[in-house]
Amino acid sequence: MVTAEQKARIEANRKLALQRLKARGIISSNGTSSGTEGGGKPATGGAAPAPSKQDDMAKLQAAAPPDSVRDSTALLEDRSHKRPLDSIRPSIRKQDYIEYDFATMKNLNGGYINPEDRVGGSDDFDDEFGSKKQKTLDDWKREQQERRMLYENAPPPEHISQAPKCIECNVNIEMDPVLHDVFKLQVCKQCSKDHPEKYSLLTKTECKEDYFLTDPELNDPDLFYKLEKPNPHSGTFARMQLYVRCQIEEFAFKKWGGEEGLDQEWQRREEGKSSRREKKYQKKIAEMRLKTRAQEYTTKLREKKYGMKHVHDFSVVVTTGKDEDGHSYTRKKCIDCGLEMEESDL
Predict the structure, then answer these.
(1) Where's the XPA C-terminal domain (predicted)?
(2) Largest CB tally within 10 Å, which of 204, 213, 223, 267?
(3) Distance, CA of 118 to CA of 109 (rounded, Å)
């Protein structure tokens, strides 16, 4: 139930609201609405209509002198177009504190439906066929056909019997996309797995070490097709370059005179490695012998100067001090070779 205090508060608020409406000219002093039609009848609708822009301008022109009517009208129009708070800008950027603004996010339904592609959306996605929302089914089919032609040298066959077949099995018409698109080989996936000795991929290092090909030959696009992939060891390393084995072997056999010539080149290079390794070993041995001879020569000079067997001739023993236990230290020096000895008396 409403108490007496709450009723008094409601009545006071009602009086304040009526005073505000009277001050704004929405209702007259006798309590009737100022928005009447014709012969004093109130306007249709239960609530009092808000004053329109034309009513405000009429009241301002009636209250102001004739000279200031034009200025007041311009001021009112300027306020209607530009609010006072529009010139106030926040001093702190919200992007410094808000990482994800959910008020500006759009639901794209997992990327399958874009609201901008619908009727009435943005026209920023226009292409050669017109806007997506205006594209017909025939246009879409023609666009897909032209895109497919970019990756195929010939149009698709009219009948399945005319489709190209695998050169290994002569049965499958579905080719390995990597071998077909990159290396231009008409081989199916099953045959590429069954014949790894022909269709396996080799790295650039393997081509240089196993088939003795050079960098200019491997980088020549007229000689080899290659597939580039990110380096599996690190993203900052150079991209990995892959070659198909059959193409590498064909060029290597022509370069070295067949498989036997390639084996002879491998044997020649292995012998060259062994000879270089032997030369390096002999060089190290010669350096070691020079050091040994230098030591022998130094020993001979010492023997010539001091004799084969040197007997030390020490000087007078000199006491140098005592240790923590009170034992004294003595020092003596050879007059001939300069050898110093320090002894302690226990």
Answers:
(1) 198-248
(2) 213
(3) 14
pLDDT tens-digit map of 282-295: 999 988 888 877 77
SS3 content of the chain, % helix, strand, coil (to 5): 50, 10, 40
Burial of 23 (0-12, 13-18, 19+ CB in 10 A): exposed
Task: Please write the tens of the pLDDT for every residue from 146-199.
Answer: 766 555 555 566 677 778 889 999 888 888 888 988 899 999 999 999 999 999
Q: Are strands 240-244 and 318-322 parallel, antiparallel or unpaired?
A: unpaired
Q: Provide DSSP, 27-95.
A: B-TTS-BS-EETTTEEPSSSSPPPP-HHHHHHHHHHHS-GGGHHHHHHHHHHHHHS-GGGG---SS-GG
Helical (H) or strand (E) element with 343: strand 340-344
How far CA 159 is from CA of 148, 156, 174, 186, in Å, comes to 18, 9, 14, 18
How many residues does this entry show for the chain? 346
Residue 213, both tokens: 């090909």
CB 90 within 8 A of CB 84: no
Cβ atoms of 225 and 182 closer than 8 Å: yes
Q: What three-state secondary structure class fits 174?
A: coil
pTM equals 0.41
Q: Which residues pair with 27 in a beta bridge?
A: 33
Count of alpha carbons within 13 Å of 15, Cβ hemisphere only?
6
- Euclidean distance between CA atoms 27 and 19, whole angstroms: 9
- Provide the 8-state DSSP code for 344: E
